[in-house]
């Protein structure tokens, strides 16, 4: 998922999948030794088997769900936990867009005319070429784009074997659609709603690549529980008549912000070919009110800590690993 042709400002060897996989294992092994619960996103299907095998050697259960396309390695998500430390009490995998009822909006006039013209000319097209229509998120609209996205969420209920305390952990990867903030608001709200429903009011940790920055309305949605009615990115601005779903969630705290008083400067440092570098905070560990944060993994404050944009020598992804220690 990080080919050298796309990440041309990185050293080619740092984009090599075999080297990146070994670097990933080195980065994870210390956390495995501590019996940490590990949540992963953008897991290519070709890595699921090797990762499950690696985790099993340390007494871990590894739960993965893949839903992507050939172009992104059928990427998915995963949760790994120590079976010596935790007992699995419940588990669910959901496609979050199934968490609400969707209304079919009326077709715009331009699409109606296109359908008519396509029908009228279908005999000609069949004789002259193989033609197909691909609807992009822009042509579908943000509402239809939200409906069509099949991103999944893994949720587990774990019991700590020593204390018998139970808590839930969920992981999600919000669609990377910066140009469609309402789609991201819809999916983030659905992710939170699904996780909170699964947790049934109990302790919850929601980890993921949310593709949102701290100043966005989506971040405010998670941390305050709702959007202002006059927010220009409120989903209601694209919801058709008859859809009364409300993107309201129980407010959650970010572990880093709670402990440090602010989010880290960045968790993602990437530069694709022909583009300016992107530096921003996109990854979070969101917590229900039950938790006390005892510490967080320190992160670099400047991109100068790295020779090139990520992936780099000791960083297998363009995202940094984030971690925290929690007390229930």
From TrEMBL:
What residues does the Endonuclease/exonuclease/phosphatase domain cover?
A: 36-319
Q: Name one GO molecular function term.
A: 3'-5'-RNA exonuclease activity
Which Pfam families does the record match to this protein?
Answer: Exo_endo_phos
In terms of SUPFAM superfamilies, this protein maps to: DNase I-like
Under the heading InterPro entries, the entry gives:
CCR4/nocturin_mRNA_transcr, Endo/exonu/phosph_ase_sf, Endo/exonuclease/phosphatase
Identify this protein by name.
Endonuclease/exonuclease/phosphatase domain-containing protein
């Amino acid at each position: 998922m990080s080919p050298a042709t796309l990440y041309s400002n990185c050293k080619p060897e740092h984009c090599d999948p075999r080297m990146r996989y070994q670097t990933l294992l080195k980065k994870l092994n210390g956390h495995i030794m501590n019996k940490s619960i590990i949540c992963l996103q953008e897991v290519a299907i070709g890595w699921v088997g090797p990762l499950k095998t690696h985790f099993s050697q340390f007494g871990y259960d590894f739960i993965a769900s893949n839903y992507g396309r050939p172009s992104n390695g059928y990427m998915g998500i995963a949760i790994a936990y120590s079976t010596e430390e935790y007992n699995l009490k419940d588990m669910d995998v959901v496609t979050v867009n199934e968490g609400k009822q969707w209304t079919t909006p009326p077709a715009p006039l331009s699409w109606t005319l296109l359908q008519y013209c396509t029908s009228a000319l279908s005999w000609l097209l069949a004789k002259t070429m193989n033609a197909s229509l691909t609807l992009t998120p822009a042509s579908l609209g943000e509402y239809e784009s939200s409906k069509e996205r099949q991103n999944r969420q893994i949720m587990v209920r774990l019991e700590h074997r020593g204390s018998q305390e139970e808590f839930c952990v969920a992981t999600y990867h919000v669609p990377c659609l910066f140009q469609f903030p309402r789609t991201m608001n819809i999916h983030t709200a659905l992710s939170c709603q699904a996780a909170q429903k699964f947790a049934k009011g109990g302790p919850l940790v929601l980890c993921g690549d949310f593709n949102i920055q701290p100043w966005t309305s989506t971040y405010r949605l998670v941390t305050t529980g709702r959007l202002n009615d006059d927010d220009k990115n409120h989903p209601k601005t694209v919801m058709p008549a008859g859809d009364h779903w409300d993107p309201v969630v129980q407010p959650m705290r970010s572990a880093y912000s709670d402990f440090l008083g602010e989010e880290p400067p960045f968790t993602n440092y990437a530069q694709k070919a022909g583009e300016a570098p992107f530096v921003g905070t996109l990854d979070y560990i969101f917590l229900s009110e039950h938790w006390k944060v005892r510490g967080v993994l320190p992160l670099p404050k400047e991109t100068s800590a790295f020779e090139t944009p990520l992936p780099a020598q000791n960083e297998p992804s363009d995202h940094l690993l984030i971690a925290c220690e929690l007390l229930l």
